[in-house]
Amino acid sequence: MVDANTLIHESLERAGELCPDLTPKVYEQLFNQHPDLKSKFIMDKNHAVKGEMLSKAFEAIIDLTGAELYARTLIHAEAINHDNNFGITKEVFVTFFPIVRDTVRNVLGGNWTAETDQAWSQLLEKIDGLIRRAGS
Ligand code: HEM
Question: Do 30 and 96 meet the contact criterion of CB atoms below 8 Å apart?
Answer without folding.
Answer: yes
